[in-house]
Design goal:
Immunoglobulin-like, five-stranded mixed beta sheet, 25 strands, 18% strand
Length: 590
């Protein structure tokens, strides 16, 4: 009992000291454009959720998080992997597999989004605050958590209200959404942000490699540069829209930047002190295998959940052991006499309308000239401003929005219109869909069809003037080289088709004369899949000839109408001419 009280006292002193330091540091470096939301929390004014729908536009749905603060000093020297660790040492260290996932995600983001400057320590800080590093590194060899980490259901009773979006696939709840996994993604966010971080062919929010990579991409959207404090603050607030959350994450980020160490999987300390349970901040929560992180500490008994000053205690969900804050999937009765909340702008949206988008067509590699515009309207057709609209690129395409993302969220203006970022066509041609949906409200989505056409050229010219000749049964010594242009400019990555035709008047494929060879060495007289390089140049494969002599035509064509006919000649080598003698003859005349 004395030891338990002493541990609580030491933790309280550390928490108070570090909190004071964190708040002081943040006050001195607060990013510009910070305002207070409807709940009195400070938030950045742009690139973070609107106060009407903060949860649906955050990675976690603004679920509860752990308020533990880092120790004042890391152990020196740091223990090595396999060394027995004390509770304080485990808290300072990061489990081996979890640490590897963070560093692997940083490495991949350094290649795909170098301008983001994502540090792995930021992923570690968020992972610590969201799940205590996957409950102290309780993961299997592939990085998947041993048991699911599921937050309380977001039913609006003390939390945000987010109706089910995944039919319970990830969170086991078919009525409301819950945050899931070591990085606590809500299913609707995971649907577009999920990534395959361990190369097993699937994106699993319960896998620390997948979740860490998804968190990295989420933090790097909107072209944020995380080496800039203002962008760093915006990114963290977009993960969970709370100034206290920002302060806590920044505290751990600073701690991990000063140095950390690897500890064996499963030996990390369990998190304590959740944001929605002020009384539980001093010691691990009791309970067995609760669905939410923090309810994993061993205990000899399982007392009921502690009452909260702001809401009555809630029993655990079916199948859970009653972690703090978990709710049954039923609608709780509202308190007697509680005021009816005013509808938010999002609540008034009845449908979405096309705000003037007509034709969405672009050549491969180009930016679409027109941007998608969507208007949010009430039942009566009135415009609804301050509503978040999510635009999602769907279908088999490599097209993205500016910045490389397939998802973008935009707030409607006073006219109820949200304009999506510009679309950038990839190299894959064909049609795809961009779907507009209302964030935080279930109304039918609005689909826009977009088309990517292949690159074109209007002119083909030979790069040399050498006559192309060959003897029967031989091969042409000189290769065929051409250059493609479009309106005088270089036409790169343009498809070229090469066909040996019967004549300029008959474009049918010839059955004799010169030919190319396929991979098996067989004769072919039509080649497709050829493309010009970045300089518009193309050199064709080697040409061969059969025994048929004569003049033949090689025709090259491109999308856009370019055509070039090249003459090929197959003839026997000329007989050498005998030399004429100038000496007088010694033979007698006939």
């Amino acid at each position: 009992m004395v030891a338990h009280f002493d541990r609580r006292l030491r933790k309280a002193a550390v928490t108070t000291t570090v909190a004071a330091l964190a708040v002081a540091a943040l006050s001195a470096s607060q990013a510009p454009g910070v305002t207070a939301d409807g709940n009195g929390r400070q938030t950045t004014a742009d690139n973070v959720p609107a106060s009407e729908t903060p949860a649906a536009e955050s990675a976690t749905g603004n679920s509860p998080y752990y308020t533990d603060l880092p120790p004042l000093n890391s152990p020196k020297p740091a223990p090595t992997a396999g060394t027995p660790t004390s509770p304080g040492t485990s808290e300072a260290g990061i489990p081996a597999t979890v640490l590897d996932a963070y560093k692997k995600a940083e490495s991949e983001l350094r290649l795909s989004k170098p301008g983001c400057n994502l540090p792995w320590q930021l992923l570690a800080a968020i992972g610590k605050v969201e799940s205590g590093q996957a409950r102290g590194g309780r993961v299997d060899a592939n990085g998947t958590t041993i048991g699911r980490i599921i937050g309380p259901q977001l039913d609006g009773n003390g939390f945000a209200l987010i109706q089910d979006t995944d039919n319970g696939v990830y969170d086991g709840n078919s009525k409301y959404d819950n945050a899931v996994g070591p990085m606590q993604f809500i299913p609707s966010t995971w649907a577009w942000a999920g990534r395959d971080g361990n190369g097993d062919g699937k994106a699993d929010p319960n896998n620390v490699y997948d979740a860490a990579l998804a968190a990295g991409h989420y933090l790097c959207r909107n072209d944020w540069d995380l080496s800039v404090q203002a962008d760093l603050n915006r990114a963290i607030l977009s993960y969970n829209n709370s100034q206290d959350y920002l302060n806590t994450v920044l505290s751990w980020l600073e701690h991990y930047r000063k140095g950390t160490h690897e500890i064996p999987d499963g030996t990390g300390s369990l998190p304590v002190g959740r944001s929605d349970d002020p009384g539980a901040g001093a010691s691990p929560s009791p309970g067995g295998t609760g669905a939410y992180p923090g309810s994993q500490a061993p205990a000899t008994s399982t007392p009921g959940p502690k009452p909260s000053p702001s809401k009555p205690p809630a029993p655990g969900k079916p199948g859970n052991s009653g972690g703090p804050g978990t709710k049954p999937p039923t609608d709780p009765a509202p308190p007697t006499g509680s005021p009816t909340p005013s509808p938010t702008p999002t609540d008034t949206v009845h449908h979405l309308e096309n705000a003037g988008t007509t034709g969405l067509t672009a050549t491969a590699g180009d930016t679409f000239a027109e941007q998608i515009s969507t208007r949010a309207e009430t039942t009566a057709g009135a415009a609804v401003g301050k509503v978040r609209i999510r635009f999602t690129v769907l279908g088999d395409t490599d097209a993205t929005f500016t910045g490389g993302e397939k998802v973008a969220a935009v707030t409607t203006n006073a006219s109820g219109v949200a304009v999506a970022p510009a679309l950038v066509a990839g190299e894959q041609t064909g049609e795809f869909t961009v779907r507009a949906t209302v964030v935080g409200r279930t109304v039918p989505g609005l689909d826009y069809r977009a088309t990517v056409t292949e690159r074109v050229a209007d002119t083909l010219t030979r790069t040399t003037a050498t006559e192309l000749t060959c003897t029967p049964g031989g091969e042409f010594a000189d290769p065929v080289g051409v250059k493609a242009t479009l309106k005088g400019a270089v036409a790169d990555k343009v498809a070229v088709t090469a066909t040996l035709i019967k004549s300029e008047a008959d474009p049918a494929e010839n059955d004799k004369g010169p030919y190319f060879k396929d991979a098996d060495g067989k004769a072919v007289r039509t080649l497709t899949g050829l493309k010009t390089g970045a300089d518009g140049l193309l050199e064709l494969p080697k040409l061969y000839a059969d025994d048929a002599e004569g003049s033949y035509v090689l025709r090259l064509t491109t999308p856009g109408g370019a055509q070039l006919d090249i003459t090929l000649k197959v003839a026997k080598a000329a007989e050498p001419t005998p030399e004429t003698s100038t000496e007088p003859s010694t033979q007698p005349a006939a």
